[in-house]
Each structure stands twice: as C-alpha cells, then as structure tokens.
Records
---
Amino acid sequence: MMIMTACSLHAPKVPEDVKAKYTSNLPKATVTNFNEAVACMDDLMLASKVAPIYISSQGLTNYTSDHTISQGGIEMLITTLSKMSIRSNAVRFVSYNSDIANMMTLQGVHPNRASFKVPDYFIRGGITAHNKSLWSGQRGAGASVEFEEPDIIDSGTFFTLRGQEDATTSYSMSSSYGTLTIDMSAGFISNLQIVPGVASSNTLALENRKGKAVSADLGVGDLGLSYSLSSNKTFDYNTVYRSLVQVGVIEIIGKLQNVPYWRCLANAGSVEYRDEQLLKKYIELELHKPEALIETAQIALTELSYYSGEINSQLNDETKMALQAYQQQMGLMATGIINFETYRMMNLYQPTREEKSLYWWKSALNTPDVVPQAETKAGKK
C-alpha cells in the first residue's frame, strides 16, 4: 500500500506567481518596488535640464554582525546611478579603487588631463542596523476522530492495542518579520567635508519567511497511512538592501540637484499592492489569453511612442523591436519578450515625452485590462 501511495504522489509544483517572477529559462532584471522611482528621477532631471554632477564612492559598509548581507553595496549604488541617468545624463559616476586623496594626485599626472574629471562629490554610508527577527509567529490547528475503539490485549509484561481505527490531521502556518537600516551621506571631494543636510537614513521591513504545512494520519486495523505537505517561501534581505540603496540615492541626488525628488517617492508604498494585482492579471493573460497580453503591450507601446504598427495581437518583429527599445530605455533585460517585469513597468510608470508634461506614477489598475487606454493608428482601443 505504501508503494502504491508513493507512486501516485507527485513533487509539489512551483506556484505560478513564483514562476512568473523568476522564470527558469531566461535571466531577469533585478526589480524592486523603487525601480519606478529611479526612472521617475531620470525623467525629472531631464525635464529640469540640470547640469551633470560627478560622483564617486569607496563603497557601502556592513556595520552589523550579519555576514549574510551582500558585500556588493557599491555595485547596487553604481547601478542605481546609471539607471537614473539613462535619458538625463545628470549623474556621472567616477570609479576609483584608491582613496580620495589619490584622486587629486591623479588629476595632475593623468595623460588626458584635459578630459579627466575629478568628482564633485563622494557618497559614503552603510548598513547600520539589521533585526532579522523583529517578530515571528505560528498558528495551527489539529483534529482527530476515532472510528472504532481498540481491543486491549494483555501480553503479560505490557498491553497492546489492536483493531483501532482513527484519523488525525493538522495544519499550521508560520511567518517572520525583520528590518534593515541604511545611513548614507554626501561630501565634497575638494575639502572632504560632508554637505550639510545631504544625507539619508531609512529603515525598511520585510516579511522574510512564510510557510505552511499539512499532515494527516489514518489508522485502520494494523494498517497505517500518513500524508504531509509543506510549502515555504524565503525572501532575501539583499533585495531590501537594494531598495534602501535606491531610496538613499534618490534622496541624495535629489538634494544635490535641487529637484523635487519626493514626488518620485510619493506613491512607492502602494506599489506592493499594485504588484500583486498586476501579477494576477499577468498570469491570467499569459496562461489563458496570450493574444490579449500581446495586444495590451502593443497598446502601451503605442501610447509610449515606441510602436507605430497595427494592433494585431501578434508578436511580430516590429513589436519585438519596440519591446526591446522600451526595455533598454527602462533598464530592463532587452529580450523582446513580454515578461512580468516589462508588463509591470508598462502599467506602473510612463516616462514623459514632453518636458512640460510629467506623468507621475500613473496607475492603470482602474481600467479593465490594466493598461493605458490610447487612441492608436488602428483606432480606439
């Protein structure tokens, strides 16, 4: 009976929402809840016509005792600054492996001194607090029922139960919650002084683990059967780290460039809820209405002036080229495929096409298809 039961079981399937976010056959762009805010800053500085500033950094340090946090904070910072300057070219990162004093020396001996630029500012900071177990909890329930009482057999030295028929089942859920804190500031390269007021200190919380388990046991006479199923999700604090780096960079660059950066952060807290709704819609379209998914992308790309072809629900070469151009512009993996990151970005943020018109955090979740509605060359959609 156990062999037959084992043969009838299958390995647990990866949930559709996990597969949609993390495809197994293609690389994906690293996306957080603040990617739209980074693109928004690029748009804002382009519209404000700010002059470029030159930034350098020796890195971000982990000041806590938790060594599971990535040492790649400097790379997260560089990536954020780069994506913030795709269209505006408002921030230029100068990379050094030596200390700040050597930058000044290099200025005088560089063979191309005319084009070599010593940075205006440096960014410093790091992880100052990490509470991985701020809160944890578990909840469960169980039940049992006895169909037939057992016969008690006196074996002399001990008693045995025979003929008992019963069933038991249990269900439990668990989760844990933690926080991460980063402090960052900017200083002048020329005198190594911190710029007054140009600093950022933020804490972000994460539900870092969710799990559930089900078990059942059945006893009939001398035969016993058991069943168990568990499902657990763990979330990496390095994603929180990247988010905090993005927020810190937005604050610091916004202050240095004197632009209203807070507009780009205004609705960041609602992104997670909208992400959940968009993910459900994306899975529905991908599994059951792939033609509708292509059509919504074509409408969005037309609205964003990347696509000028017919709205025909076909992933043709012109649509693929438009997708690649959009993905490249928005700092996504330019695959020409409508993955969740691309679908998400199209619905959460629209880059400006005119300097006088900035579309701050336009949400499309109020429309039936969760896409911008536009009048296209193929007619109104």
---
Amino acid sequence: MDCADCQEQVHEYLQREVNEDLAAAITAHIANCDHCEDLYATEDQLNKVIRESCETQTPEQVIDKIRQHIAELG
C-alpha cells in the first residue's frame, strides 16, 4: 500500500466499503504515514459534519414562516 492507493481508497474505507484485507492494509499505512493520517482525519471530520447536518431538524417556526410566505405568493 502506497500513499496514492491509500488516498484513492480512504473514502470507501471510512464508509466501511472495502474488504477486510484492504481495510487492514489501509489501517497499517495510515498508522505509519503522517500525510495519509492527516488526510484520513480530514475526511473523517468532513463525514461527521455531513452526518450531523443531515440529522438537524428544521425548527417549526422556520417551516411555518416558509409556508406563510408561500401562501402569500400563491
């Protein structure tokens, strides 16, 4: 496993979409490569932000204002 291979697979690795052998190779590479570890950390943080953003519910007040505005337009 070299940096190019690791970087190409890091997204799938984070999504647990790689087989066990490839996951082990990526894990070992990340443990020994500061550059790829930084990339992994960045991708992992981005995934967390995306997940949290998708879980956020729109407040009812905002929904009501949008509905009111739509009703006024139509």
---
Amino acid sequence: MLIRSIPHDSEAFTQGLVMDNGRMFESTGLFGESTLREVNTTTGEVMRQTNLEPSLFGEGIAVVGDSIFMLTWLNETALVFDKETFNLTSIMNYEGEGWGLCFDGSSLVMSNGTSSLSFRNPANFEIIRSVEVTDSSGNGVQMINELECVSTDSGNRILANIWQEDRILMIEPSSGNIVAEFDASFLSSQNGVTNNEVLNGIAHNGSSEYWITGKNWTSMYLVDLLISDEEGDKECNSDCPIEAESETTWLKSILLLALLLAGIAVLNKSSAKGHFDGKGSGNRHDEQPSAMSDMQRSGGEDG
C-alpha cells in the first residue's frame, strides 16, 4: 500500500538507500558525480552531501554505529565516513565489483552483481562467509543489487532488488533461499522508461514500511509491505502497489512485463535521438540487459 511520496532529485543515480533512526542517507553513482547525501524525508530536499573523487563510482551504503560504509563499483575499496560530518575516516579493500550493502547487526552483507552474497567483518571488511541466492528450483539468481537487512518475526531477512527488474526479493540469509517476492512495477511505471531509470533503493522505515526509489526517479515512495514469508499466509490490500504473488501469477506478470519492455525498447531505440549516440560514455550504465558482464554498469564501460 502506498502511504505517501516525496520528490527525488532526478539527477541522482541512486545506488544505495538506508534509514537510521528516522534519518535517510543516499549514495549516488557515476564517475565524477558520485555523492553521499542526507535527505529530508518530508520534502525530499538534499540536506547535505559530500562528493567522491572523480575516479570513484559510488555504490551501496550501510550504517554501522557512527559510520557509513560505501562501496565503490570498480575500485575495490570501501569508503568509511563519519555519519555526522561525512568526513572520510578510513578505506578498506576487497576484491571484485561492489554493488549493494546492508548491515544485519553483526555483519556487513555485500552483493557484487552475481548470485553470491558475502558477509563481512565491519572491523576489517574480511569475508566471514558467503551464500548463494537461489530460486525455488535451486538455480542461482544473478544481478542481486541493492540490499536492505531487516528483522522479521521469522528471523533476519535480506531484501534485494534485481538489477533492471521490478522485483524485490526477500532472502533467508543462512540458506540464500528466496522466501517472498514483491512486484514494484506500479512504482517504476510512474517514472522514466530509459535503460538507466531503474528500480534501485530500498530502506526500512520501521515496522512494515519501506522507502523505495530508483536511479534518476523523480519520486521516492513510502510503502507498506505486508510481509509474511510463511507459505499461504501472504496478504496485501487490493490496491497495494507492491504485493507478494503466487508463482503462477508472477510468471504471467513477468511474461507480460517482458513483452511490454521489449516494445518500449524498440520505441526508445528508434525515437530517442541523442540519448545513446553509439559512443561509449565511459560513465553511464546504458543499462542494457545484453551487455557483457564487464560493461554492464558503466555505459560502455552500478544499484
């Protein structure tokens, strides 16, 4: 159920979103444009921000005590900021790409665009363990992106969006099994339809309330996710924009969505003059589902 919406900076290439005691923090990406921000949850105004060095492409963020951890996409470094001053306090290293990040109360959980989630020690960013996210058939789910760690009546869970899709998954962190799934197409349909303007931002506001947004979206949405990961006990109001769905309904929805997106892609390709000029930008994602893995998040080169 949609509770309310606020304006969102349409220039913000959102990579991470998190709430901390009523305060919203957002990270944005792109080389030369990456930022860490605090956002007013009443007006959507950017209250303060710090800019990353032009060589850094900002990614997911998580709050740990008085610090904010931010991943970088290709630089293999995690930046640690003081929450109150946004001063950079330390830099930690990791291998591979950085995508999404959340804190489960003891470990930082990190995605890298594959089906794997790594659980890391906040003190040194070393991997404690890893788990593969799998569907009901046991297949690995690729493109796990922005993360949100939450505590439910059934235990700790991880919410994640799938890059370039309108799906939000609820994951059991011990097994990696998907225990619930939500359709966010109602929200994405109210925003741009280019390859860059995709769902990317989940922040737990308390109880069953979540802030949802996307890259270059014009709005942020506070929604009530009536979450239950017990089979046969999923409920949502009839007008709920994000709802748990049965497998059959989900498959039908995905098929229809795929057909719709295919049509939109054809129209965009033929009519959007100048949006993609055929030259690698070295910056934008140019979020093409068929892009090679080493080019996906750069636009000829994020969530």
